[in-house]
Amino acid sequence: MTTRTDDLLGRIQPTEGGREIFDPATGELVGRAPQASVEDLNDAVARAKTAQPGWAARSNDQRRSLLHAAADAVEAHAEELAQLLSREQGKPLNGPNARFEVGACSAWLRATAEFSLEPEVLVDDTSGRATLHWRPLGVVGAIGPWNWPMMISVWQIAPSLRQGNTVVIKPSGYTPLSVLALVEVLNTVLPENVLIPVPGRGHVGEALSRHPDIDKIMFTGSTATGKSIIKAAADTVKRLTMELGGNDAGIVLADADPKAIAEDLFWGAFINTGQTCAALKRLYVPESIYDQVCSALVEVAEKMPMGPGLDEANVLGPLQNEAQWQIVDRLVTAARDSGARILTGGDPDHSRSGHFYPTTLVADIDPQNPLVVEEQFGPALPIVKYSTVDQAIEWANSLNEGLGSSVWSSDLDRAEEVASQLVAGTTWINKHGAVDPRMPFGGARESGFGLEFGVEGLKEVSQPHIISR
Ligand code: NAD
After folding, report:
1. How far apart, in whole angstroms, are the C-alpha atoms of residue 287 and residue 284?
2. What is the model's pTM?
3. Yes or no: domain 4-244+447-468 corresponds to CATH 3.40.605.10
4. Cα(245) to centroid of ligand 1, in Å?
């Protein structure tokens, strides 16, 4: 099949060899990804290090304009990028999926272009004058996951470049083509060696995390890998931003209107077919409206089409890979075996090609069930019944993760009061997972540390430097 992605693929595939990447919806070959060795990585870091002073020496205005030009380039290639992303990652073109993700790339490039960190005067009196300056760190190593490969790459690249750092980026081994294509497009406007991709498996990421000439690692991925990177980075005291796993709770309050919130609850949980760090992964609902919330969610879930991403009708896709499919299947099976009630889904069609797992809602589930306390990262939402709000808050706060959370109510003040008792980087009210480039985003507890987005995000890729006289 000839698609709009062929030109981009032609530019990023090796002339021969490479690792074959298959469409998770159809099993068809998408393309071949080059495989970087550790020697290639060392060469990339050396080139990025050499290029960094020249990049940092450009004016703020030049770097701002280049980020806008990068956004223009993404927009000019938006449909090819979205189609390639859909074929490799599995997410449909429509819904909050591939086209949405490519749109977020240009939106974040533009928003980040407009943030700026100005020097601050800290002291200016008879004792002297002290100023705070935000210098670039040097070379940033970016390591990303497979769920939102383009958007998360931009979250790492844009602030780093904005502040005068150069970037070596290692995409996930599952979705290298999406990131290589994005970088190819960005590099049509960026100077040489300011942004260098090194596609490879985990060992290339590990070498990046240990590399003495890498000044900072921005990592998004699982908590387990994050812990390895923290250890690997210790010897060179690298700066780190860790965006790790989540198991976000949502608490519905008794005054919420089940029908009014059902669609937003659904997308909070099932965006990108549940493969989203800050998706709603466990829902706590009071006894008084439990049945109404369950049936409103089933009604929404059963009208959302799931299938291959390039089919314009679909808004839900496959799991990106077999390993993730197995995790979801294991957790739903454990829930069913424990006596929980499957409201919809839970019965994968083994004869169907592709890693499809049906949209699954699970009710009457114990709060300690594995589907509740482990990150499912797929289309299966457990709905836990509670009797008091204090109990729901205690359950919500009982895990090691603390990325996002949400409270659903018609009384916004009451919702804020409950929100203030939740341990999380962000708590949304009557929505879930609504990231915004103006609002710093990061995790509590084992969901990580450091912030992305906004001026706070720029500080994370800068070295504070005080000059005191
Ligand atoms: P992963 O940890 O398996 O892989 C992430 C990246 O790390 C990949 O590029 C991988 O090749 C690389 N890697 C693997 N081993 C490494 C090592 N020893 N050293 C350095 N790099 C190594 O994560 P994933 O499965 O791709 O992503 C899913 C996870 O990411 C979920 O837990 C999800 O919640 C989390 N996530 C978090 C955020 C956030 O912003 N907090 C966003 C998206 C995903």
Report:
1. 10
2. 0.97
3. yes
4. 8
